[in-house]
Amino acid sequence: MIDADSVSLSVGSTPLLSEVSMRVAAGELVAVVGPNGAGKSSLLSVLAGDVAPSSGSVTLDGLPLRSLRPARLARMRAVLPQRVTVAFPFTVAEVVAMGLYGSRLTAPEEEEVVSGAMAATDVAHLAGRAYPTLSGGEQARVSLARVLAQRAPVLLLDEPTAALDIRHQEQVMGVARDRSLAEDAVAVVLHDLNLAAAYADRVVVMRSGVVVADGAPAEVLASDMLSEVYGCAVDVHHGDGGLMVAPRRAR
Amino acid sequence: MPKTAARASHSAPAATDVRTGEAAHAAAPRSGRAVFRNALIPALAVLLATLCVASAGIGAVAVPFEEVAGSLFGGTGPHDAVLWQIRFPRVALSVLIGASLGVAGAAMQGVFGNPLAEPGVIGVSSGAAVGAVGTIVLGFSAFGEWSVTVAAFLGGLIATFVVYLLSRSNGRTEVVTLVLTGIAVNAVAGAVVGLLTFLADDAQLRSISFWSLGSLGGATWPVVAGVLPFAVAGLVLVPLFARALDVLALGERSARHLGVDTERIRLGVILLAALLTGAAVAAAGIIGFVGLVVPHLVRLVAGPGHRVLLPASALAGAIVLLAADLVARTVAVPAELPIGVLTALLGGPFFLWLLRRTRAGQGGWA
Predict the structure, then answer these.
(1) Which residue has the higher pLDDT, B147 or B323?
(2) Residues 12..31 of B with a Cβ closer than 8 Å to A: which?
(3) Where is the ABC transporter domain positioned along the sequence (chain A) (predicted)?
(4) Which domains does chain A have, with CATH numbers?
């Protein structure tokens, strides 16, 4: 669905991405992990079409990203940024309904999509609240509901679980997996390697603007590689609940 | 997550992005705010109509309510000359300018995603005044009797774009940068007006104080006719951007992700707001705080959705200016207070109250 081919990006003389290639197929959930400053969000911005790469190309459904107008692009991919502030006290339901900008649904259809999206991220009880009055985690879930309401077949999520409690982390990753099971292409930037291990079909590990590993979680998430990438001793345990990643702490 | 058949059906072409239905609010619970929202526009319309008739009857010569109403519908009476040559053009001009300022303020706040944006704050009014005053003092007349209007319009447009370009960074306009840039542009514009004042002769000085204090005293039918096309164009076209302005509250980047052509929308809205404000300033000088306060008042009652906010701000702006003009010309008879002084005198403290109330009540504007 979405395909980045040897993409490089620099700001001034600082290279943020060097020769990064990555694709996400329909029906696939890909986690992008790596230490702070690895270029994960930059990669997502390039995939979203926010910034044009200095070299290389990105195609969406086989079409060059740069050839697509905003309205067309919005029907093909939805993006969840790390943090969304809303300038005026729009209610949660109004913010989620903004995901339907440009769609041509009847009012009952819109209501169904909006309430479905709010239920999926557990924000239905906040529907009448003003977005600026919500906590960070609540705002993140409302923004995700807005992204879901867009119903685009490619989802780009930048740290959707960062501000969430453990229950909502699981719920949000469950939503992402459901979307991939429904043949959407989902790319998620994550810091939590355990979530990546549990939910991703594929894990892309980045460091200093380069992809250092790309494969199934069990292949990629290995103690040696993670310890080196993060500069910190990391153990990987294989238990009943799947793969568990934890830092090695001095006792 | 109901994906249903919607993905197939949401292939609307970009040109139809701007919609007019109430759909965005469909999912909102039927709250008290929804009731206010639906009742607001009819209520404001009735209030405006009543105030128009009342205002036309009040003044140095009192005209009974029945005669004003009758005269409007083709009747004749002893005060026809007063009504048709003085009162009606003044009421019409107040309504047009008040509506223009209200809509321009709401549109500016929406397009900047910033509750402090107002034609006055970001320099469009003073830019327009520079154009108008410069035309008066330097005798620029390339556009004949439209020279002042054209110059005011261009001055407002240039000042707006200077502020806009200078205050943007990373795709978002920060409150502090915006206000500081506006202050800088206002200072430069003020200095230019000062310089022109220094160069002006006595007759020109009178015209200049007219511009800088604001007055509806020059209201005649030709002036009304001069403002009318700009006001109508703006009032009709700005609401077409309502849905896009809602989405712009998410910030430029997220709005673009949702399919808003942010550059085109911003350019269109800023042009229209500068057109509305430029025409208003050309006819009546600088009238501050209407564009800033009126949209905030409307948001308190009806929420921030632009489909209601824009028309309601037009009506409320017309009401506020009509009422202010009524006070300005009756409170110190036979003298007439400059209306810009009055709106700033009342609007400033009121805005302070609004600011504190909003901070306390709903977590602020941003």
Answers:
(1) B323
(2) 12-14, 16-17, 21-29, 31
(3) 2-233
(4) 2-85+152-247 (3.40.50.300)
